[in-house]
Each structure stands twice: as C-alpha cells, then as structure tokens.
C-alpha cells in the first residue's frame, strides 16, 4: 500500500473513531452534569490540568518519538531494532509514570490546596495518580502502531477506553445508589483509571497477537542505551513543548477573565464572555479538526519513512497533497462559519455573542487546520526542537494578546492575537520545512 493510501485509510479510521468517541463523550458529560451538578463537574474538570501535565512529563514526548523512530527503522528493514525501540520506550515511560504516581500521592494535598485551591481535590488526585502507568503502556504501544502505519490498535483502544470508562461509572453509580451510599464525583475519576486499565490491557493483548516474537525479544544493556538515546533526542524537546503548552494554556485560562475586567467588565460579565468563548465558540471551530488531527498522526511516520529512504520527490508530493487538503478543508470551514456562525450561535447556544465569536474565529480555520499537518511533518523530519520553538513563539503571541490587547480592545483583542499566532506558526513552519528539505 502506498504512502498516500496509508494516510487516507488511517485518517478515515481515526476520524470515524474520534467522532464516535466525541459523540459518546457528549452524552457522558450530560450524565455527569445531571448526576453531580455544576459544582461536582467543576471539581472533576479542575484536576485535568494536573493530569495533562503529568502525561506531558512522562509519556507524550516518548509516544511521538517511538512513532517517528519505528517508522524509520521499518523503512530500513530493521524490524528487531524497531521492537527494541518500543521496549526501551515502554521501560522509560513506565518508570517515569510510576515515579509520577508516587509524587502525586505524596504531594496531592499541596497541589490541591496551593495550586487548585480546593482541598476536595485531594482524594481525586490520589485516584487519578493510578492512571499514569496504564496510560504510559497504552500510549507507547499506540505510538509503535502509528510508526507501523497501523491504526487498528489505537482506534479500538480509544473506543475500549471510552466505553469501559462510561460503563464503569454508570455501574458504580447504580451500585452505590442501591446500597444507599452517597455518590460523589470521585467515581468519575475511578472511571478514568478503569478505562485506562482496559485500554492498556487491550493494547498489550493486541500487540502480543500481532507481534508474537515481541515477548521473546531480549534487550541487552547496550541495546537499551542505544535505543534510549535515540528516543530521548527526539522526546525531550517534545516533552518540553507539551509542558510549555500546558503551562501557557493555564496562564491564558487564569488571565483572560482578569484582563477582561481591566476592559471595564464586571467579574460576572468577564466570566460570562470567557465561558461563551471556550464553551461555545471554540468547540464549534475545533470540531472539524478531528479530521486534520488524524491526518497529522498518520503523516509523521510516513514522512519519517520516506526521509529514511531519501526520496525527496515523493516527500515533496506527500507534503503538498496533505497540507493542501488541510488548507482546503480550512477554507471550506472558514466560509461555512462566516455564513452560518450567527445562526449557529443563536440556534444551538441561544447566544448572539457566541455567533459573533464564531464568525471572527472562522478566519483562523485555514491556518489552524494546516498547522497540525505542518508541525507533524517537521516532527517526522526529526526536527522536534524546531516545533518546540515554533509553538513557543505562537503561544507567546497568544499570551501577548491576553495581556496587552484585551485590556485595550476587549475579547476582540484576544481573537486577533489568536489569528496572529496561527498565521505566525504557519509561516515559520513552511519556512522551516523548505530550509530542511533544501539541504
């Protein structure tokens, strides 16, 4: 199967899985909100920045590095070395995750009271800590599968995790109700743990079935250090990138309501505007990105494989077609949201403001959707340090919009900063790709 066919097939599978998971998640959120109320759901959402940070520290960079390195090894016929990469990555990520679990349990009280500002998060963080080792196993095996350009295991593991999580929470809820016990939002966090356990179990069983020799593969001390060095060179910049993104996104979330008050809005009005932006307008704009995210996942190992084969002509063709398709999708969505944004805001959300935000945000679609492909291409070319710098600059522009534009122009200043950020990332990524391939 050609690289183009692999990308198309993988994109279709991952996109359908992504849409199905989002559909299931939509009804799950309705169940949570009706069962635990706004306050309970608020506590549940409060722990997710901690979860994202822990995942970034332990696994996210390793997963991407495994995908890229395995693709290179397989293109050169080095199947044994590809499996050694996975084993080394699993060992590193699992060890880091276990350390993170211990630290999260030990410092859970400090994190809950000093950073999250609510001691009720202490038991939630303790339960959440147990997801880390299982998440590491699941993510590393998915990275290996992406490197092989196989989407069956990642797609089914995503559905397994979502299905088991929802069922576990519902069954726990019914059991506690029958016993006459108080039901708290902690069962939703238990669902996260059970879902990750199911996903890790499925990926391990699927891997052993697909790769029967994997379990008998030995990993010598020398092979482990060789594989680890290859992974760490790629994963460290990616990990730093993810941590920075999470940190700056937290700064954004905290700062926007406060800066809106400097624009002469009351605290209530500022939170209302922020809620409309993040809870209504942005989800609409981001919904089609399930397609481009799937393209990006399949694109990185494909680019790495073609680069290893030193076929620049084929590489240029893949880059042009994939980025062109993402840009066309972005243009179509831009036109769609420009024409229907006001209608969507009023009809779906009952908010004229949401419609205005959707219309303004429509202009970022061509750049937002294309950037996921461009960043994936640069990662596939092995220049993860470049993606770190590009993403950092983009986020700095966004933060600048929060601190300098919002007090003067209101939320419209932030939207302009968001557009400038996406445009800057696009231009820098394109320039970087041309620079790499002209060497």
Give the helix/strand layout.
Layout: H1 3-46, H2 48-75, H3 79-106, H4 108-115, H5 121-129, H6 131-147, H7 152-178, H8 186-210, H9 221-262, H10 267-286, H11 289-308, H12 312-349, H13 352-361, H14 365-380, H15 384-409, H16 411-437
Assembly state of the chains shown: single chain
Specify the structural class.
Answer: mainly alpha
Number of helices: 16
Apparent shape: globular
Q: Tally of extended strands? A: 0
| Rg value | 22 Å
Identify low-pLDDT runs. none
Task: Name the helix and strand elements from N-terminus to C-terminus, one letter apiece.
Answer: HHHHHHHHHHHHHHHH
Query: What is the arithmetic mean of pLDDT?
Result: 83
| Fraction in helix | over 70%
Q: Strand content of the residues, in percent?
A: under 5%
How would a textbook summarize the main sheet?
Answer: none
Between the first and last Cα atoms, what is the distance in angstroms? Answer: 29 Å
């Amino acid at each position: 199967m050609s690289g183009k066919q692999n990308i198309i097939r993988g994109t279709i599978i991952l996109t359908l899985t992504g849409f199905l998971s989002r559909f299931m998640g939509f009804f799950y959120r309705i169940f949570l909100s009706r069962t635990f109320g706004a306050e309970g759901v608020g506590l549940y959402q409060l722990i997710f920045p901690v979860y994202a940070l822990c995942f970034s520290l332990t696994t996210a960079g390793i997963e991407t590095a495994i995908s890229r390195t395995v693709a290179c090894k397989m293109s050169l016929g080095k199947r044994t070395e590809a499996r050694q990469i996975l084993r080394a990555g699993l060992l590193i990520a699992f060890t880091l995750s276990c350390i993170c679990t211990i630290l999260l349990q030990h410092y859970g009280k400090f994190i809950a009271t000093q950073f999250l500002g609510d001691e009720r998060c202490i038991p939630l963080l303790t339960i959440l800590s147990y997801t880390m080792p299982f998440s590491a196993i699941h993510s590393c095996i998915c990275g290996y599968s992406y490197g092989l350009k196989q989407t069956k295991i990642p797609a089914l593991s995503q559905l397994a995790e979502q299905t088991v999580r929802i069922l576990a929470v519902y069954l726990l809820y019914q059991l506690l109700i029958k016993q006459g016990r108080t039901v708290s939002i902690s069962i939703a966090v238990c669902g996260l743990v059970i879902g990750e356990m199911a996903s890790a179990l499925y990926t391990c069983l699927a891997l052993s079935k697909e790769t029967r020799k994997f379990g008998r593969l030995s990993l010598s001390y020398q092979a482990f250090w060789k594989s680890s060095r290859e992974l760490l060179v790629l994963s460290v910049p990616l990990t730093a990138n993810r941590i920075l993104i999470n940190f700056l996104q937290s700064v954004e979330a905290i700062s926007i309501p406060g800066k809106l008050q400097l624009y002469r809005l009351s605290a209530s009005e500022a939170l209302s505007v922020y809620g409309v932006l993040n809870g209504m307008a942005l989800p609409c704009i981001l919904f089609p990105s399930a397609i481009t995210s799937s393209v990006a996942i399949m694109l990185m190992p494909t680019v790495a494989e073609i680069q290893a084969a030193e076929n620049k002509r084929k590489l240029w063709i893949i880059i042009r077609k994939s980025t062109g398709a993402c840009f066309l999708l972005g243009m179509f969505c831009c036109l769609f949201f420009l024409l229907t944004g006001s209608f969507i805001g009023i009809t779906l959300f009952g908010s004229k403001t949401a419609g205005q935000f959707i219309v303004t945000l429509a202009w970022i679609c061509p750049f937002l959707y294309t950037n996921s492909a461009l960043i994936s291409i640069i990662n596939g070319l092995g220049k993860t340090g470049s993606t770190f710098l590009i993403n950092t600059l983009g986020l700095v522009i966004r933060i600048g919009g929060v601190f300098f534009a919002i007090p003067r122009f209101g939320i419209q200043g932030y939207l302009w900063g968001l557009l400038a950020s996406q445009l800057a990332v696009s231009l820098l990524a394109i320039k970087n790709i041309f620079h790499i391939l002209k060497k």
